[in-house]
Design a protein that fits this description.
By secondary structure, the chain is an alpha+beta fold. The chain has a single domain, classed as 2-Layer Sandwich (Alpha-Beta Plaits), CATH 3.30.70. 23% of the residues lie in helices and 32% in strands. The radius of gyration is 17 Å and the shape is globular.
Length: 145
């Protein structure tokens, strides 16, 4: 048995998700329960709780990292923004949610979960980034494929 670091291939999804200013303020004050009370996050919570490969860490499911912050944007003339006015810089309270997907997850399951994420996102143009990553895991865990 190796005592070195094992690596696991995965994909990381980072999504910017708007929340209320009250939720953001409560999070910065250390109130993690604010995530459960924000209605704009209900659809995202449902997706993470569903039977799909999002946040699959074997013994743990629906794992996501949440970073509070702000999103900056300026809607163009053709935009139909949920928040803000065309031509004016807008600052939106938001969360950056990072979700990992095992590399071996069936693509059809990943696509279905991504379609659900896109449909649930409140922005006209959601910011959803997908990248290939390597996760360090303890020796004896799932090795790099």
């Amino acid at each position: 048995m190796s005592t070195g670091v094992a690596l696991r291939q995965a994909r990381a999804i980072r999504v910017a998700w708007p929340v209320s200013l009250e939720t953001l303020q409560r999070l910065f004050a250390g109130e993690a329960a604010a995530l459960d009370g924000d209605q704009s996050l209900a659809a995202l919570r449902d997706i993470l709780d569903a039977d799909n490969p999002f946040g699959d860490f074997g013994a743990y499911q629906g794992v996501a990292e949440v970073t509070p912050g702000w999103e900056l944007f300026r809607p163009g003339p053709a935009a139909n923004p949920t928040l803000g006015t065309a031509g004016q810089r807008t600052v939106s309270p938001s969360l950056t949610i990072t979700i990992h997907i095992p590399a071996e997850a069936p693509q059809a399951d990943v696509d279905a979960a991504l379609e659900r994420l896109l449909a649930a996102h409140p922005w006209e143009v959601p910011v959803i980034e997908i990248s290939e990553v390597l996760l360090a895991v303890r020796p004896g865990a799932q090795p790099l494929r």
